[in-house]
Amino acid sequence: MTGTTETFQATLMHAPNLGSIETIEDALVEVAANGKILAVFRPGEPDYEPTQHKADAEGSLHRFDPGHFLLPGLVDLHIHAPQWPMMGKSLHLPLYEWLEQHTFPLEARYADVDFAQEVYSSLVDALLANGTTTAVYFGTIHNPANQALAEICLDRGQRAFVGKVAMDDVDQCPDYYRDESAALAIRETGELIEFIRKLPENESALVKPIVTPRFIPSCTDELLEGLGALARETDCHIQTHCSESDWQHAFVKERCGKSDSTALQDFGLLTRKTVLAHSNHITEDDCETIKAAGAGIAHCPLSNFYFANAVFPLRSALEKELHVGLGTDISAGPSPSIFDSCRQAVTASRVLEDGVEPKREASRRGREQARIDFRHAFWLATAGGGEVLDIPVGKFAPGYHFDAMAVDINAAAAPLPTWADMDGPEEVLQKIIYSATRANIAKVWVAGREVG
Ligand code: GUN
Ligand code: FE
Q: Measured in angstroms, how far is the CA atom of residue 93 from the centroid of ligand 2?
């Protein structure tokens, strides 16, 4: 290992457990050639000085300037890659019309692989610059474009899950943007799984496939059943939208006679490797079902304000010990930054707790004890996301991938207002979570490799 180990000396901040922050000033993080963390040492520990001296002598010690903090990279559990050109537009419509009038016409353009290359390159670069080291992508129905996305992630060094969107229902999907048949959508999903797993330079599975039925309304039973079987046979992750809006929730109830969660379970689509976007309207029974399956939820608070008709009861889900992380849901959520998702998750929880109709008596306006704070939000954005995906990312611990970022609170373009005599490490972290911008993200690493 000598000569290939890299050692980072920095003040690190992470949330190894839900609700608490750990700060280690002047820590040493030893990273193996395979990009995994070997050890984390605190000043004063017996191995600290020998490790530091050895790394220094070998020229493999990375030191940081004052004002730089080492944080885990951010995990975006839910993002629609093809919707990047639409970010910040068309948010005035409800979900159904938004899909029909704006989203499907844009996604149909990815039949053109050159267009896909251009958009996906721009998106992956932007996400890395925003500190997103793991992204879970919905692609489109077109495999050449999905393959391009997987190759771009691999080339740029972003940890990613890439899914071919499957949608075959003749009544719910337009003729110009629909899988020709359930059988073809299942076959092409299988082909993308194989393509990604066999990509040269992807031996470490930095980029993984993910089975992606868009949501129950756009898929026939045959497709959903077939994708459930395929996910089982290939031991693949799964993602879909679950109980997002009043319309979606009611549509599935009407068609399937049960909730999204139960229907997905019956189709074989609810597993330990499933990521359910949103889930705002899940019931207590749904929570039990999701928990028993070990599935996870991608909470996308900003998107929810536009399309979900209700605030996700995050605190309650966390108390039930469901797996939860954060997503941007670009472009239903108009920001590429998971720090923005953190801010909105805190805000949404406060809105839920207080309620918003001033005419209603304060005691009847909201839901008791619904709030979370920045500590929960930071955990959701890092270790919580890793837990949903069942991959070792999101904290600095032996065996975890070194997916990290250096945040510069003094960045010339956007210095954060911190004062040494007023702000301890946890206050600095709080300010980073609430106020850091892309300009503060000085460096980003995935699997020990500097990216972006
Ligand atoms: N439900 C089905 N498709 C979509 C989508 O693209 N975005 C969101 N937010 N919800 C969906
Ligand atoms: Fe979505």
A: 15
* Ligand 1 midpoint to CA 241 (Å): 7
**Bridge-based pairing state of the strands 274-278 and 296-299:** parallel
Ligand 2 centroid to Cα of residue 332, in Å, is: 7
Residue-wise burial string across 314-351, b where 16 or more C-beta atoms lie within 10 A, e elsewhere: bbebbeeebbbbbbbbbbbbbbbbbbbbbbbbbbbbeb
Q: Which atom of ligand 1 is nearest to the CA of 333?
A: 9
Which residues have a beta carbon within 5 Å of ligand 2, which is an ion? 277, 329
Pocket test of ligand 1: the residue of 173, 241, 275, 328 to mutate, having most ligand atoms within 8 Å of its CB, is 241
Cβ–ligand 1 distance for 215 under 6 Å, the answer yes
Report pLDDT for 2.
40
Under 8 Å between Cβ of 185 and 177: no
> What's the burial of 272, exposed, middle or buried (CB within 10 Å: 0-12/13-18/19+)?
middle
Burial of 420 per CB tally in 10 Å (0-12, 13-18, 19+): exposed
Report how far residue 286's alpha carbon sits from residue 438's, in angstroms, rounded to the nearest whole number.
37
So what's the pLDDT on residue 162? 99
**Residue-wise pLDDT tens digits, 284-318:** 999 999 999 999 999 999 999 999 999 999 999 99
Burial environment of residue 449 by CB neighbours within 10 A (0 to 12, 13 to 18, 19 or more): middle
Average pLDDT, integer, range 221-234: 98
Write down the pLDDT at residue 1. Answer: 37
For ligand 1, pick from 90, 169, 214, 328 the residue to mutate: most ligand atoms within 8 Å of CB: 214
Task: Kindly report whether the global pTM for this prediction surpasses the value 0.85.
Answer: yes
Given this model, what pLDDT does residue 4 score? 86
Shortest-distance atom of ligand 1 to CA 218: 2
Give the residue whose CA is nearest to atom 7 of ligand 1: 332
What domains are defined for the chain? 6-72+394-451 (2.30.40.10), 74-389 (3.20.20.140)
DSSP 401: B
Instruction: Round the average pLDDT of the chain to a whole number and report it.
Output: 97
